Amino acid sequence: MPTLMPDIANHTTAQTEGTLDWVGMSNIEMPIMVASKGQSERMVSAYVDAFVNLKEPKAKGIHMSRLYLLLDELSNSNVLNHQSLVTLLDGFISSHQELSDNAKVKFSFDYHLRRKSLISGKQGWKAYPVTVTGRLNKGKLDIELSLDVRYSSTCPCSAALARQLIQKAFKEKFSDDANVDLADVHEWLGTTEGIVATPHSQRSVAEIKVKLNSSTTEFPITDLVDLIENSLKTPVQAAVKREDEQEFALLNGQNLMFCEDAARRLQHTMNITDQFDDFWLRINHLESLHAHDAVSVTTKGVVDGYQA
Ligand SMILES: Nc1nc2c(ncn2[C@@H]2O[C@H](COP(=O)(O)OP(=O)(O)OP(=O)(O)O)[C@@H](O)[C@H]2O)c(=O)[nH]1
């Protein structure tokens, strides 16, 4: 006969009574098979947070093992998609009858996508940090997708200052020459004396969170990446041949951006798509002129929605 073990969670009461918003586990490491719109299902190495509320003030605690085992079942024999996320949240609550009526789960992982080069037709992998968060709040379901997109931003102020220096160098070189020779100018422009200054660019990160429409049944990871990268125009590249690098230089030159410009661009893009109920975005320009970052934040402005 098995030894009877003490069951603190069930058989004792709280020393100090009180309800709690969230109780659960954070940073659970698990392989998860993820389904995303337009992509083959793929395994990711995820960190998972799993929570329920504790609405019974006298109860000692929740049953962490029940949350863990429901997650393990998803990891071991299912795929993370809209339906399984809802089932998981339902399971969190039904396994905590009398104790909980809210549930939350967050999966954080790197999601790899094949991305095309700009000109050469080559392809390469890019890893996007993604989180999928589901919340069930007194029967109301909320699903949030968040991801980071890295891109390059060239400073418009620096570009203007560099152009001024190039104009000055041109004047100094050719102002005494009444009959400026086109070939001479062409050759001179191809030297570092001609293009005497270059503007600074920086590795930049757009962080974005969206609330999925209730009609969305697939995680639109690729759609969201495409939307952001097509709007910013200068995402970091995977496979790069020289023709790709030259095109990247052109795109940078034609898409000069302060962090305000990048935020307004994405704000406009997100406002004209009806795919999402709400959005929050934060633009980080990891400055190369400064040792600090230039940052801008905005939201859709929904009442009771995301706050900046
Ligand atoms: N509630 C709670 N459990 C904790 C905490 N830290 C560790 N645990 C452990 O989580 C383990 C699993 O708890 P339960 O889910 O109640 O385990 P169980 O009683 O075997 O499972 P059930 O029979 O389904 O209730 C226990 O061994 C707890 O000690 C904590 O801060 N709060």
Cα(first) to Cα(last) distance is: 59 Å
Please list the strands of the largest sheet in the order they lie side by side: 1-2-3-4-5-6-7-8
> Helical stretch count?
8
Say how many strands there are. Answer: 8
Rg result: 26 Å
Small-molecule binders: guanosine-5'-triphosphate
Helix content: 25-40%
Estimate the global geometry from the Cα principal axes: elongated
How many structural domains does the protein architecture include? 2
Mean pLDDT: 96
CATH architecture group name of the largest domain: Roll
The low-confidence parts are: none
Topology order in helix (H) and strand (E) letters = HEEHHEEEHHEHHHEE
Q: Specify the biggest β-sheet.
A: 8 strands, antiparallel
Pathway: Cofactor biosynthesis; 7,8-dihydroneopterin triphosphate biosynthesis; 7,8-dihydroneopterin triphosphate from GTP: step 1/1
Catalytic activity: GTP + H2O = 7,8-dihydroneopterin 3'-triphosphate + formate + H(+)
GO biological process, one term: tetrahydrofolate biosynthetic process
GO molecular function: GTP cyclohydrolase I activity
